[in-house]
């Protein structure tokens, strides 16, 4: 493959990942990593020296655990526990529900290795062919997935707690070391004589500041709501983010809890709350100017897009008028253009062999509402192919713009707001008030 082709494909794949604000952590990775670097740079220019060190430890450390911890723990379980129980980690337990006879239908259309798994689901689960358990393989799949979700989330949460405590411990040790060398910070005592009054202002921002915040506050109830969090990587990560926020507030030192609350609010709004609305706003603008960008970048930037969309028309009409959409989807030609486009869009799970689609996968659930929306978007795009260059350009601007807004808000606006508040409340001092208070406390103890 030529280098220009590799670069082009890499750009499209990156744009595809960054544009998925529904169930992908790729936009989170980009926003978090870049905003952390920007945030640390902002504190380096305008904050205190302790801010840079603490933020580097906390942001990059928690960021690594936050973004990669859950997938890493899940992969570890997939490679160890699942083979031990003779289970296939690729099977999504949601397909095992026999709602409206869908499970029975999936068993009838499954192929090759997938069919072998479905045929064993009614058997009693066996571990190492030695122990027979009083439940079926179907129940084993469901129970193991729930255990994997809980274990990976809790283990990451435990590691994050230790990291935050480590950050604060190293700061205390640094202050103590400076005092032992008789090199206390040269700041006027009068500059902090209103510190207790400032604490009241900080407390006004943080309710229930003395209450313990546990993981239970963020754990969703068992049921459909919980299932949504278990199977959506983005929402699974949001649980961990809630745990991080709770831990930071709980472990936060005197004087810095309002700053923590402000930072976590920015995180929630710009990584989770506003990502999808901003995307939809860009899509609305695109539709206003005949530039539909709802489909994935893998579809929009496909070099054979026009040829594929022209071949999709007949199959789309069949599905649009279908009385049994799921069955008609599985009856589609897996080598046909529509299956290819829906797979590129992330709407249809498929089985590939050396990059070629062999079948529609029965191991993953198909969301019929998403399929209907995708069909509408494919039709809309097929009518706007004359503007495909403008559509590609606007798709790029919209995707990167969404990410850039979050990075600017979290990496520049939030720390600048925090530093401005520090100066306003602390007679122009831009340092972390919690560290200032700790230094004063140690100085008094030494004197």
* Average pLDDT rating: 79
Total beta-strand segments:
4
Note the beta-strand portion: under 5%
Euclidean distance between termini CA atoms? 71 Å
What's the overall geometry? flat
- Helical segment count: 18
Spans of at least 5 consecutive residues with low confidence: 184-222
Cross-sheet strand order for the largest sheet = 1-2
Main sheet makeup: 2 strands, antiparallel
Give the tags.
two-stranded antiparallel ribbon; two-stranded antiparallel sheet; 4 strands; mainly alpha; flat; 447 residues
Please outline the helices and strands.
Blueprint: H1 3-18, H2 26-46, H3 49-84, H4 102-109, H5 112-119, E1 124-127, E2 131-136, H6 137-180, H7 195-205, H8 224-231, H9 233-251, H10 257-273, H11 275-288, H12 297-300, H13 305-320, H14 325-330, H15 337-344, E3 350-353, E4 356-360, H16 368-382, H17 388-425, H18 433-446
Antiparallel strand pairs: 1-2, 3-4
Helix pairs in contact: 2-3, 2-17, 3-6, 3-9, 6-9, 6-18, 7-10, 8-9, 9-10, 10-17, 11-17, 13-15, 13-16
Structural summary, described in words:
With 447 residues, this protein is mainly alpha-helical. The chain folds into 2 domains: 50-276 and 429-446, no CATH class; 293-383, no CATH class. It has 18 helices and 4 strands. It has helices at 3-18, 26-46, 49-84, 102-109, 112-119, 137-180, 195-205, 224-231, 233-251, 257-273, 275-288, 297-300, 305-320, 325-330, 337-344, 368-382, 388-425, 433-446; strands at residues 124-127, 131-136, 350-353, 356-360. The strands form 2 sheets. It has a two-stranded antiparallel ribbon. A two-stranded antiparallel sheet has the order 3-4. A hairpin with a 3-residue loop joins strand 1 (124-127) and strand 2. The longest helix is centred in the middle third of the chain and has 44 residues, at 137-180. The protein is flat and about 85 Å long.
